[in-house]
Protein backbone atom coordinates (compact mmCIF):
# COMPACT_ATOMS: atom_id res chain seq x y z
CA UNK A 1 0.00 0.00 0.00
CA UNK A 2 1.29 3.45 -0.96
CA UNK A 3 -0.04 6.92 -0.37
CA UNK A 4 -0.61 7.44 -4.09
CA UNK A 5 -2.68 4.28 -4.19
CA UNK A 6 -4.86 5.69 -1.44
CA UNK A 7 -5.67 9.03 -3.04
CA UNK A 8 -8.66 9.22 -5.37
CA UNK A 9 -9.76 12.58 -6.71
CA UNK A 10 -13.27 12.36 -8.10
CA UNK A 11 -13.96 16.04 -8.51
CA UNK A 12 -15.88 17.98 -5.88
CA UNK A 13 -18.44 20.70 -5.77
CA UNK A 14 -15.86 23.40 -6.44
CA UNK A 15 -14.89 21.85 -9.74
CA UNK A 16 -18.54 21.65 -10.75
CA UNK A 17 -19.25 25.29 -9.93
CA UNK A 18 -16.22 27.61 -9.77
CA UNK A 19 -16.20 30.24 -7.06
CA UNK A 20 -15.56 33.36 -9.19
CA UNK A 21 -18.83 32.88 -11.08
CA UNK A 22 -20.82 32.54 -7.87
CA UNK A 23 -19.36 35.00 -5.39
CA UNK A 24 -21.93 37.70 -6.10
CA UNK A 25 -23.77 38.93 -3.02
CA UNK A 26 -27.05 37.17 -2.20
CA UNK A 27 -30.07 39.43 -2.00
CA UNK A 28 -33.44 39.27 -0.30
CA UNK A 29 -34.52 38.14 3.16
CA UNK A 30 -32.27 36.67 5.80
CA UNK A 31 -31.99 32.92 5.26
CA UNK A 32 -31.77 30.28 7.97
CA UNK A 33 -29.46 27.28 8.33
CA UNK A 34 -29.90 24.58 10.96
CA UNK A 35 -26.72 22.71 11.94
CA UNK A 36 -27.04 19.37 13.75
CA UNK A 37 -23.71 17.86 14.77
CA UNK A 38 -23.05 14.60 16.60
CA UNK A 39 -20.11 16.27 18.31
CA UNK A 40 -19.42 18.04 21.58
CA UNK A 41 -19.42 21.84 21.45
CA UNK A 42 -16.28 21.92 23.60
CA UNK A 43 -14.37 19.73 21.14
CA UNK A 44 -11.64 21.86 19.54
CA UNK A 45 -11.61 19.82 16.34
CA UNK A 46 -15.38 20.14 15.99
CA UNK A 47 -15.12 23.90 16.40
CA UNK A 48 -12.40 24.08 13.75
CA UNK A 49 -14.61 22.16 11.30
CA UNK A 50 -17.51 24.55 11.95
CA UNK A 51 -15.13 27.46 11.40
CA UNK A 52 -14.15 26.00 8.02
CA UNK A 53 -17.86 25.81 7.13
CA UNK A 54 -18.47 29.41 8.21
CA UNK A 55 -15.45 30.72 6.33
CA UNK A 56 -16.59 29.05 3.13
CA UNK A 57 -20.07 30.49 3.52
CA UNK A 58 -18.55 33.95 4.04
CA UNK A 59 -16.53 33.56 0.84
CA UNK A 60 -19.74 32.73 -1.00
CA UNK A 61 -21.47 35.84 0.28
CA UNK A 62 -23.39 34.52 3.29
CA UNK A 63 -22.49 36.33 6.50
CA UNK A 64 -24.02 35.30 9.81
CA UNK A 65 -25.93 38.20 11.36
CA UNK A 66 -26.31 40.01 8.05
CA UNK A 67 -28.06 37.82 5.50
CA UNK A 68 -28.05 34.38 7.13
CA UNK A 69 -28.79 32.98 10.58
CA UNK A 70 -27.20 29.73 11.71
CA UNK A 71 -28.83 27.73 14.51
CA UNK A 72 -26.29 25.33 16.04
CA UNK A 73 -27.10 22.13 17.88
CA UNK A 74 -24.21 20.07 19.29
CA UNK A 75 -25.52 16.74 20.53
CA UNK A 76 -22.34 14.75 21.23
CA UNK A 77 -22.94 11.02 21.61
CA UNK A 78 -26.33 11.38 23.32
CA UNK A 79 -28.93 9.71 21.07
CA UNK A 80 -31.81 11.34 22.95
CA UNK A 81 -30.34 14.81 22.54
CA UNK A 82 -29.69 14.17 18.86
CA UNK A 83 -33.35 13.32 18.24
CA UNK A 84 -34.59 16.24 20.35
CA UNK A 85 -32.30 18.70 18.58
CA UNK A 86 -33.40 17.40 15.17
CA UNK A 87 -37.03 18.11 16.10
CA UNK A 88 -36.14 21.56 17.45
CA UNK A 89 -34.37 22.52 14.24
CA UNK A 90 -37.19 21.28 12.03
CA UNK A 91 -39.65 23.33 14.10
CA UNK A 92 -37.56 26.43 13.29
CA UNK A 93 -38.26 25.76 9.57
CA UNK A 94 -34.75 26.50 8.28
CA UNK A 95 -34.15 26.88 4.55
CA UNK A 96 -31.59 24.07 4.73
CA UNK A 97 -30.10 21.76 7.36
CA UNK A 98 -26.42 20.83 7.57
CA UNK A 99 -25.84 17.46 9.26
CA UNK A 100 -22.71 15.68 10.47
CA UNK A 101 -22.54 12.11 11.88
CA UNK A 102 -24.69 9.08 11.11
CA UNK A 103 -26.93 9.39 14.21
CA UNK A 104 -27.61 13.05 13.42
CA UNK A 105 -28.41 12.15 9.83
CA UNK A 106 -30.79 9.38 10.91
CA UNK A 107 -32.58 11.77 13.29
CA UNK A 108 -32.87 14.49 10.65
CA UNK A 109 -34.32 12.04 8.11
CA UNK A 110 -36.94 10.97 10.64
CA UNK A 111 -37.80 14.57 11.51
CA UNK A 112 -38.32 15.88 7.96
CA UNK A 113 -38.69 14.69 4.40
CA UNK A 114 -39.16 18.20 2.98
CA UNK A 115 -36.49 20.53 4.41
CA UNK A 116 -33.29 20.22 2.32
CA UNK A 117 -30.52 18.30 4.08
CA UNK A 118 -26.81 18.53 3.27
CA UNK A 119 -24.77 15.87 5.07
CA UNK A 120 -21.09 15.11 5.56
CA UNK A 121 -19.30 12.08 7.03
CA UNK A 122 -21.95 9.53 6.07
CA UNK A 123 -20.81 6.30 4.38
CA UNK A 124 -22.36 4.74 1.28
CA UNK A 125 -25.95 6.06 1.39
CA UNK A 126 -26.90 4.02 -1.70
CA UNK A 127 -25.91 0.69 -0.14
CA UNK A 128 -27.64 1.78 3.08
CA UNK A 129 -30.79 2.61 1.11
CA UNK A 130 -30.95 6.30 2.00
CA UNK A 131 -30.92 7.51 -1.61
CA UNK A 132 -31.58 6.04 -5.04
CA UNK A 133 -28.20 6.95 -6.55
CA UNK A 134 -25.18 9.15 -5.95
CA UNK A 135 -25.64 10.95 -9.25
CA UNK A 136 -29.28 11.91 -8.64
CA UNK A 137 -30.22 11.27 -5.02
CA UNK A 138 -33.72 12.70 -5.36
CA UNK A 139 -35.83 13.82 -2.42
CA UNK A 140 -34.48 16.31 0.10
CA UNK A 141 -31.01 14.82 0.70
CA UNK A 142 -27.54 15.38 -0.73
CA UNK A 143 -24.02 15.79 0.58
CA UNK A 144 -20.50 14.44 0.83
CA UNK A 145 -19.81 10.92 1.98
CA UNK A 146 -16.80 9.93 4.04
CA UNK A 147 -16.12 7.08 1.62
CA UNK A 148 -17.65 3.91 0.26
CA UNK A 149 -17.76 0.89 2.55
CA UNK A 150 -15.08 -0.85 0.46
CA UNK A 151 -12.62 1.87 1.40
CA UNK A 152 -12.72 0.51 4.96
CA UNK A 153 -10.59 -2.39 3.75
CA UNK A 154 -7.65 0.03 3.55
CA UNK A 155 -7.61 0.34 7.35
CA UNK A 156 -6.84 -3.35 7.72
CA UNK A 157 -4.28 -3.14 4.93
CA UNK A 158 -2.59 -0.21 6.67
CA UNK A 159 -2.58 -1.98 10.04
CA UNK A 160 -0.93 -5.06 8.55
CA UNK A 161 1.72 -2.99 6.80
CA UNK A 162 2.60 -1.12 9.98
CA UNK A 163 2.41 -4.21 12.22
CA UNK A 164 2.80 -7.34 10.04
CA UNK A 165 2.63 -9.75 13.00
CA UNK A 166 -0.91 -8.69 13.91
CA UNK A 167 -3.16 -11.74 13.58
CA UNK A 168 -6.14 -10.79 15.73
CA UNK A 169 -7.96 -7.52 15.14
CA UNK A 170 -10.85 -6.00 17.04
CA UNK A 171 -12.95 -3.34 15.35
CA UNK A 172 -14.26 -0.81 17.88
CA UNK A 173 -17.64 0.52 16.73
CA UNK A 174 -21.10 1.68 17.64
CA UNK A 175 -23.35 -1.29 16.83
CA UNK A 176 -26.35 1.00 16.19
CA UNK A 177 -24.44 3.16 13.71
CA UNK A 178 -25.37 2.16 10.14
CA UNK A 179 -22.10 3.45 8.71
CA UNK A 180 -20.09 1.47 11.27
CA UNK A 181 -22.02 -1.71 10.53
CA UNK A 182 -21.38 -1.40 6.79
CA UNK A 183 -17.71 -0.62 7.36
CA UNK A 184 -17.27 -3.65 9.62
CA UNK A 185 -18.82 -5.93 7.01
CA UNK A 186 -16.40 -4.63 4.39
CA UNK A 187 -13.41 -5.29 6.68
CA UNK A 188 -14.81 -8.69 7.63
CA UNK A 189 -14.99 -9.64 3.96
CA UNK A 190 -11.25 -9.20 3.40
CA UNK A 191 -9.93 -10.32 6.81
CA UNK A 192 -9.17 -13.91 5.69
CA UNK A 193 -7.02 -12.67 2.81
CA UNK A 194 -4.84 -10.85 5.36
CA UNK A 195 -4.62 -13.88 7.64
CA UNK A 196 -6.50 -12.04 10.37
CA UNK A 197 -9.10 -13.22 12.85
CA UNK A 198 -11.61 -10.38 13.18
CA UNK A 199 -13.88 -9.55 16.11
CA UNK A 200 -15.93 -6.49 16.94
CA UNK A 201 -16.39 -4.53 20.14
CA UNK A 202 -19.64 -2.59 20.31
CA UNK A 203 -19.26 0.39 22.64
CA UNK A 204 -21.59 3.12 23.90
CA UNK A 205 -19.56 4.79 26.65
CA UNK A 206 -16.18 5.01 28.37
CA UNK A 207 -16.81 2.02 30.65
CA UNK A 208 -17.55 -0.27 27.72
CA UNK A 209 -14.45 0.96 25.90
CA UNK A 210 -12.25 0.18 28.90
CA UNK A 211 -13.72 -3.30 29.34
CA UNK A 212 -13.47 -4.16 25.64
CA UNK A 213 -9.84 -3.14 25.29
CA UNK A 214 -8.81 -4.81 28.55
CA UNK A 215 -10.29 -8.12 27.40
CA UNK A 216 -8.86 -7.89 23.90
CA UNK A 217 -5.39 -6.93 25.16
CA UNK A 218 -5.01 -10.42 26.65
CA UNK A 219 -4.75 -11.87 23.16
CA UNK A 220 -1.42 -12.24 21.39
CA UNK A 221 -0.49 -10.39 18.19
CA UNK A 222 -3.52 -8.14 18.62
CA UNK A 223 -4.39 -4.86 16.93
CA UNK A 224 -7.25 -2.37 16.71
CA UNK A 225 -9.27 -0.62 14.07
CA UNK A 226 -11.43 2.15 15.53
CA UNK A 227 -14.41 3.37 13.49
CA UNK A 228 -15.64 6.95 13.63
CA UNK A 229 -18.82 7.74 15.53
CA UNK A 230 -19.79 10.23 18.24
CA UNK A 231 -18.80 7.77 20.98
CA UNK A 232 -15.25 7.06 19.76
CA UNK A 233 -14.69 10.71 18.84
CA UNK A 234 -15.76 11.88 22.30
CA UNK A 235 -13.57 9.26 24.02
CA UNK A 236 -10.67 9.25 21.55
CA UNK A 237 -8.05 10.20 24.14
CA UNK A 238 -9.17 7.30 26.34
CA UNK A 239 -9.04 4.88 23.40
CA UNK A 240 -5.61 5.99 22.19
CA UNK A 241 -4.11 5.96 25.69
CA UNK A 242 -5.46 2.46 26.38
CA UNK A 243 -4.13 1.27 23.02
CA UNK A 244 -0.65 2.41 23.99
CA UNK A 245 -0.98 1.09 27.55
CA UNK A 246 -1.95 -2.36 26.25
CA UNK A 247 0.58 -2.15 23.38
CA UNK A 248 -2.06 -2.48 20.67
CA UNK A 249 -1.16 -1.16 17.20
CA UNK A 250 -4.18 0.80 16.04
CA UNK A 251 -5.58 2.48 12.93
CA UNK A 252 -8.19 5.23 12.87
CA UNK A 253 -10.33 6.93 10.21
CA UNK A 254 -9.50 10.58 10.94
CA UNK A 255 -6.49 12.70 11.82
CA UNK A 256 -7.97 13.91 15.12
CA UNK A 257 -7.46 10.44 16.63
CA UNK A 258 -3.74 10.56 15.78
CA UNK A 259 -3.27 14.06 17.19
CA UNK A 260 -4.85 12.61 20.35
CA UNK A 261 -2.18 9.89 20.54
CA UNK A 262 -3.36 7.27 18.06
CA UNK A 263 -0.82 5.44 15.93
CA UNK A 264 -2.06 6.04 12.38
CA UNK A 265 -5.08 7.23 10.43
CA UNK A 266 -6.23 7.21 6.86
CA UNK A 267 -9.29 9.14 5.80
CA UNK A 268 -10.73 12.29 4.30
CA UNK A 269 -9.81 15.81 5.34
CA UNK A 270 -12.91 16.58 7.44
CA UNK A 271 -12.50 20.36 7.26
CA UNK A 272 -12.55 20.05 3.48
CA UNK A 273 -15.81 18.10 3.69
CA UNK A 274 -17.32 20.92 5.73
CA UNK A 275 -16.18 23.49 3.17
CA UNK A 276 -17.68 21.42 0.36
CA UNK A 277 -20.88 21.07 2.36
CA UNK A 278 -21.05 24.86 2.69
CA UNK A 279 -20.87 25.12 -1.11
CA UNK A 280 -23.91 22.86 -1.43
CA UNK A 281 -25.75 24.87 1.23
CA UNK A 282 -25.03 27.97 -0.86
CA UNK A 283 -26.41 26.35 -4.01
CA UNK A 284 -29.61 25.33 -2.23
CA UNK A 285 -30.07 28.78 -0.74
CA UNK A 286 -29.83 30.14 -4.29
CA UNK A 287 -32.64 27.90 -5.48
CA UNK A 288 -31.22 24.52 -6.49
CA UNK A 289 -32.92 21.35 -5.32
CA UNK A 290 -30.92 18.96 -3.12
CA UNK A 291 -32.17 15.95 -5.06
CA UNK A 292 -30.53 17.34 -8.21
CA UNK A 293 -27.11 17.79 -6.59
CA UNK A 294 -24.96 14.65 -6.85
CA UNK A 295 -23.68 13.08 -3.67
CA UNK A 296 -19.92 13.26 -3.91
CA UNK A 297 -16.85 11.47 -2.66
CA UNK A 298 -14.14 13.26 -0.67
CA UNK A 299 -11.53 15.01 -2.78
CA UNK A 300 -8.75 15.08 -0.17
CA UNK A 301 -7.44 12.10 1.80
CA UNK A 302 -4.61 12.06 4.30
CA UNK A 303 -2.39 9.41 5.82
CA UNK A 304 -1.16 10.55 9.25
CA UNK A 305 1.27 8.72 11.55
CA UNK A 306 2.23 9.52 15.13
CA UNK A 307 5.94 8.72 15.46
CA UNK A 308 5.92 9.20 19.23
CA UNK A 309 3.22 6.55 19.58
CA UNK A 310 5.05 4.24 17.18
CA UNK A 311 8.17 4.52 19.35
CA UNK A 312 6.18 3.79 22.50
CA UNK A 313 4.82 0.65 20.85
CA UNK A 314 8.22 -0.42 19.57
CA UNK A 315 7.07 -0.11 15.95
CA UNK A 316 9.30 0.97 13.08
CA UNK A 317 7.28 2.61 10.33
CA UNK A 318 8.19 1.07 6.95
CA UNK A 319 10.11 3.57 4.79
CA UNK A 320 7.88 2.64 1.85
CA UNK A 321 4.83 4.00 3.67
CA UNK A 322 4.62 7.63 2.53
CA UNK A 323 2.61 9.61 5.07
CA UNK A 324 1.10 13.00 4.34
CA UNK A 325 1.88 14.06 7.92
CA UNK A 326 4.20 12.77 10.61
CA UNK A 327 3.44 13.82 14.17
CA UNK A 328 6.45 13.73 16.50
Describe the structure.
- The protein has 2 domains: about 5-145 and about 270-300, Response regulator (Rossmann fold); about 150-265 and about 305-325, Rossmann fold.
- The chain contains 13 helices and 12 strands.
- It has helices at about 5, 15, 45-60, 80-90, 100-110, 155-160, 180-190, 205-215, 230-235, 235-245, 255-260, 270-285, 305-310; strands at about 30-35, 70-75, 95-100, 115-125, 140-145, 170-175, 195-200, 220-225, 250, 265-270, 300-305, 325.
- It has a 7-stranded mixed β-sheet, with helices on both faces. It has a 5-stranded parallel β-sheet with strand order 2-1-3-4-5, sandwiched between helices.
- It is elongated, with a radius of gyration of 20 Å.
- About 50% of the residues are buried.
Number of helical stretches of at least 4 residues: 13
* The top level CATH class name of the largest domain: Alpha Beta
Annotated CATH architecture of the largest domain: 3-Layer(aba) Sandwich
Termini gap: 22 Å
Q: Provide the CATH superfamily of the largest domain.
A: Response regulator
Low-confidence stretches: 1-23
Strand order of the largest sheet: 7-6-8-9-10-11-12
Q: Which oligomerization state do the chains in this entry correspond to? A: single chain
Rg on CA atoms, Å: 20 Å
Q: How much helicity do the residues have?
A: 25-40%
Task: Kindly estimate the percentage of residues that lie in beta strands according to DSSP.
Answer: 15-25%
Estimate nothing, just give the exact number of structural domains.
Answer: 2
Shape: elongated
Do you know the CATH topology of the largest domain?
Rossmann fold
Structural class: alpha/beta
Number of beta strands: 12
Mean pLDDT: 90
Summarize the helix and strand pattern as letters.
HHEHEHEHEEHEHEHEHHEHEHEHE
- Biggest β-sheet description: 7 strands, mixed
Amino acid sequence: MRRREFITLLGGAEAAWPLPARAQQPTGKTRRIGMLLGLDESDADARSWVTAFRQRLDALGWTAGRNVRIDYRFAGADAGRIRAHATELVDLTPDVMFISSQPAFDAAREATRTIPIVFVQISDPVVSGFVASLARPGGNITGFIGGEFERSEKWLELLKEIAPRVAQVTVVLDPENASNVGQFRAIEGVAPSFGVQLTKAGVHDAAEIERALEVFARKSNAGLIVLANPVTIRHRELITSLAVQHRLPSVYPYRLYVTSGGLASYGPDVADLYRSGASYVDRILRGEKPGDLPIQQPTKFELVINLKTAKALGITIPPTLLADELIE
